[in-house]
Specification:
about 25% strand, Glutaredoxin, 5 strands, single chain, globular
Length: about 110
């Protein structure tokens, strides 16, 4: 279950959210049937709470939204892509510890 700090992002609102964000956006590409995705969920939720106001955290269900994952070459999930200034700047594939995700996003977040 996603926390209230995590947004749902879809094919239809993806470009608007990514291009208008004033802070970096971390997108979690996932699916309900993906056990590693479900195990990663609490770490993603914790990042959303920890960086509230400094990072937008969004989840995209790849089964319900096939166009955007295809655009970004998502072939394995969970896959997290960090966007800054409308551009993908980093990514993580697979089930990784929260600390690794934190190391990925921290350099892109303003003080």
């Amino acid at each position: 279950m996603a926390s209230d700090k995590v947004q749902t992002i879809t094919d239809s609102n993806f470009d608007t959210i990514i291009k208008t964000a004033t802070v970096p956006v971390l997108v979690d590409f996932w699916a309900e049937w993906c056990q590693p995705c479900l195990r990663l969920g609490p770490s993603v939720d914790a990042l959303a709470a920890e960086f509230d106001g400094k990072l937008i955290v969004a989840k995209m269900n790849v089964d319900e939204n096939p166009m955007t994952p295809s655009r970004f070459g998502v072939r394995s999930i969970p896959m997290l892509v960090l966007f800054k200034g409308g551009q993908a700047v980093d990514q993580s594939i697979g089930l990784v510890p929260k600390d690794e995700l934190k190391k990925m996003v921290t350099p892109h977040i303003a003080g």
